[in-house]
Amino acid sequence: MSNQQRKWLYLVVLSVVWGSSFILMKKALIGLTPIQVGALRILITAFFLLLIGFKSVKKIKKKHLKYIVYTAFLGTFFPVFLFAFAVKGIDSSIASILNSLTPFNTFIFGALVFGFAFKKKQFIGILVGLVGTMILILKGAELNPNQNYWYAVLVIFSSIGYAFNVNIIKKYLSDLDALAITTGNFLVLIIPAFIVLCFSDFYTSFQTNTQVISALGYITILAIAGTAIAKVIFYDMVHISSPIFASSVTYLIPIVAVMWGIIDGEKLSVIQLLAGVIILFGVWMVNKAK
């Protein structure tokens, strides 16, 4: 299979896997707190990756270490917790649509921080996307007064972390294979995640909350499929394509996530769906202007 075919296959697979991650987070949060969901997701992923990819860690050289640490925290540690809190506060489908801002941030920080080339026309796409974002948030706050739409800011911060992550991988870790990067990331995060879990009252919850067992099932699926395997695929896609193309998986994620949300009883207004289309159109314009 050629790199061209592979990158499109990866795009479809990741859109399905990551599109399903939001509903898995929502279900896991029924029996666990956001802090517990984040910490367990990291720990389960880490142990799975160490089983399949421990030997790949030997490929990581001294020059890679600081970038492995940067991508571990910016691309995984902080977003994992921020998304868990966001999905606790707003509908999972809304969180997935807001995640579509990742290509914007990839472009902006790629140009401003990492020196990647850009065109002024791409700013039009950014402005269009921001208009869609504001409509989505404001309309959501109006239709769902019981939800705190300030949680949407957490998704935006996560998308900035993802943007730095993908640009760092492309610029500084392109000579390191995807499994080595992913395993290295989670090896870095085992101790911080374990410390967080210890202070989260998880062990007390495990003994007193009957919903914890089912929540652990959801978080295990999320960790292995939605984090471990998906990140290996994603990092390989970054290597064989561009940061903008790789982050464009967020075009398709909302389609899958919204379908799961509707099945689970979440409701979106026509205006919110229109806002999602505006965001995606803005992202398309950013890519089209390359």
Give a description of the structure:
The chain has 290 residues and is mainly alpha-helical. The chain contains 13 helices and no strands. α1 (3-28) packs antiparallel against α4 and α1 (3-28) packs parallel to α12.
- Structural class by secondary-structure content: mainly alpha
Low-confidence stretches: none
Rg estimate, integer Å: 18 Å
Summarize model confidence as the mean pLDDT.
84
Query: SSE order, as H and E?
Result: HHHHHHHHHHHHH
Strand content: under 5%
For the sheet with most strands, the description reads: none
Number of strands: 0
Summarize, please.
With 290 residues, the protein is mainly alpha-helical. It has helices at 3-28, 34-53, 65-89, 92-98, 102-112, 122-143, 152-172, 178-198, 202-208, 212-240, 243-247, 253-263, 270-288.
Write the layout of secondary structure elements.
Blueprint: H1 3-28, H2 34-53, H3 65-89, H4 92-98, H5 102-112, H6 122-143, H7 152-172, H8 178-198, H9 202-208, H10 212-240, H11 243-247, H12 253-263, H13 270-288
Helix pairs in contact: 1-4, 1-10, 1-12, 2-3, 2-8, 2-10, 3-7, 3-8, 4-12, 5-7, 6-13, 8-10
Looking at this protein, list some descriptive labels:
290 residues, mainly alpha
